[in-house]
Amino acid sequence: MGENLPGGTSGIGDDETLRLLSMVERTLTSRIDDALRAQGSGIDQWRILSLLAECGGQPMTAVAEHAMLLAPKLSKLVDRMVAANLVLRRPDVEDRRRVLVAATERGRAALAEWDVAVVAVQEELRAALGGEVVQLTELLRRVHAGLGSAVVAD
After folding, report:
1. 59: helix, coil or strand?
2. In this structure, how many other beta carbons lie within 10 angstroms of the beta carbon of residue 60?
3. Does 7 score more than 60 pLDDT?
């Protein structure tokens, strides 16, 4: 870390850092999406079901933030997932005005298959990082927290 790049910069905090972060994100997202498409899914469905399986029923705002989707795209995707019996909508028992999205048994079974498809990509990342996965995760958490709330991409 701290090696000088052409032009005498260390690469920290300059355009190269941002470019590298973008390249890694795009590469990993593409590989995960390819693995999931082979299973008849996509990264957005996987992210949604991962959240719901881990945290139970969630309001659409929480699902949108986790999946990094804008409300209109999320709504259409959740409609398709409801039609496929992967998720269901139900009223929040604490606030009847609010609707929660929850994983169905079929959704949990699909997620288990999709998780298997993603393992190879996760292993590639672990292999590239060696023993530094935990450190990278902590650094990314700090950067995310330091930059404030997430901006939804799609």
Report:
1. strand
2. 17
3. no
C-alpha–C-alpha distance, residues 7 and 71, integer Å = 43
DSSP codes joined into one string, 78-113? HHHHHHTTSEEEEE-SS-TTSEEEEE-HHHHHHHHH
The residue type at 42: G
User: What is the number of domains present in the chain?
Assistant: 1
- pLDDT given at position 25: 94
User: From its phi and psi, is residue 21 left (phi > 0), alpha (psi between -120 and 50) or beta?
Assistant: alpha
Do 24 and 14 meet the contact criterion of CB atoms below 8 Å apart? Answer: no
Q: For the chain, give the number of residues.
A: 154
> 101-112 pLDDT, tens per residue?
999 999 999 999
d(CA 121, CA 43): 13
Range of the domain at 63: 15-144
Enter the pTM of the model: 0.80
Give me the CATH number covering residue 86: 1.10.10.10
